[in-house]
Amino acid sequence: MSGKDKATIIVFSDDIDKVLAAFNIATGAAAMGMDVSIFFTFWGLNVVRKERSAKSPREFLKKTFGIVNRGGASRLKLSKFHMGGIGTWMMKILMKKSMMLSVKEMIGIAHSLGVTMIACTTSMEFMGVDKEDIIDEVTRFAGVATYLAMARESKINLFI
């Protein structure tokens, strides 16, 4: 135990606006000196998936699911007003004009601040995602018991 205050965040969604909020909170808490962990599960795994999969799953359903559900931080969509991609495109332009960091940049900042990023192994198995498909900034692969143990010790626990 480090003796620092702890915060845990579950990222269940792959909506760009929700993911940006999660990383904004995580990096803010880490900058305040807290131990921060982000647990990516289900659709949240898309945030930490590489743009190109290392290999394709053998099972037909997992392979088909992987084709439809492509990952990568630059492919995330808005939760509202996506409008076939126009809303997300407009949002990214506004983010650039406002000098707001992209999700990829936020992942790098979080990593440099020591935020622990964990990929849910149960979701990975279910969705046909291998460790090789996950970005290098993710340093742990674990199940819900690991997350619950961390959440039990945390002062802040968020579900996004």
TrEMBL record:
Keywords: Membrane, Transmembrane, Transmembrane helix. Gene3D superfamilies: DsrEFH-like. PANTHER family: CONSERVED WITHIN P. AEROPHILUM, PEROXIREDOXIN FAMILY PROTEIN. This is DsrE/DsrF/DrsH-like family protein. InterPro entries: DsrE2-like, DsrEFH-like. It comes from Candidatus Zymogenus saltonus. The chain crosses the membrane at residues 20-48. The keyword Nucleotide-binding does not apply.
